[in-house]
């Protein structure tokens, strides 16, 4: 005797949105040099050599680029922002967002292209280690926008749910450096337009 199928087929839909900045965006990608130094430290190699600081190169190294060299935003940063904005008290749990919403990104670097002006180089004082201080040079984007494509499970989320979640994420979580989630007010964004 055949058993009845109880699980309905998944209803995957796609939603295209444009998001735009509502505050400055400051990035701090890991540079190849920093990754090599961490790898050498793990391997037990002493790495204490000092190099002359090149603010322009340091800011460029801290910038996220698509595989074809355009300014961008890491797709994982956006999804993490969406997840952090979700809460069961609002009717959308973090676990639901993790399994029912995915950002489409075909870029090999995992970066979504931004439309923006050339960033300015900012100099910031930072605390490191045991109370030490240093200067960091990073890119600051005054304003930006990008198009995102979202695949979602239509049995669990609606386009309105997603737009509201993104607006909450952009308002109270943000992305990149000194975002609201980390006590700052940079890296905020909102839904600009929804496309068919």
> What class would the helix/strand composition place it in?
alpha+beta
Rg, Cα atoms, Å: 20 Å
Question: Roughly what fraction of the amino acids lie in strands?
Answer: 25-35%
Instruction: Please estimate the helix content.
Output: 25-40%
- Following the backbone from N to C, one meets helices and strands in this order, namely EEHHEHHEEEEEEHE
Tally of contiguous helical segments: 5
Report the span from N to C terminus.
45 Å
Taken from the alpha-carbon principal axes, the silhouette is globular
- Mean pLDDT over the residues: 91
Number of domains: 1
TL;DR?
The protein has 196 residues and is of the alpha+beta class. Helix content is 26%, strand content 30%.
Topology diagram in text:
Layout lengths: L11 E10 L3 E2 L5 H11 L12 H7 L10 E3 H11 L8 H7 E3 L7 E3 L1 E2 L3 E9 L3 E10 L2 E10 L5 H14 L16 E7 L1
Antiparallel strand pairs: 1-9, 1-10, 2-8, 3-5, 4-9, 6-9, 7-8
Explain this structure to me?
The chain is α+β, with helices and mostly antiparallel strands and 196 residues long. The chain has helices at 32-42, 55-61, 75-85, 94-100, 159-172, and strands spanning 12-21, 25-26, 72-74, 101-103, 111-113, 115-116, 120-128, 132-141, 144-153, 189-195. The strands form three sheets. Strands 1, 4, 6, 9 and 10 form a five-stranded antiparallel β-sheet that branches. A three-stranded antiparallel β-sheet has the order 2-8-7, covered by helices on one side. A two-stranded antiparallel sheet has the order 3-5. It starts with 11 loop residues before the first strand and ends with a strand. The mean pLDDT is 91.
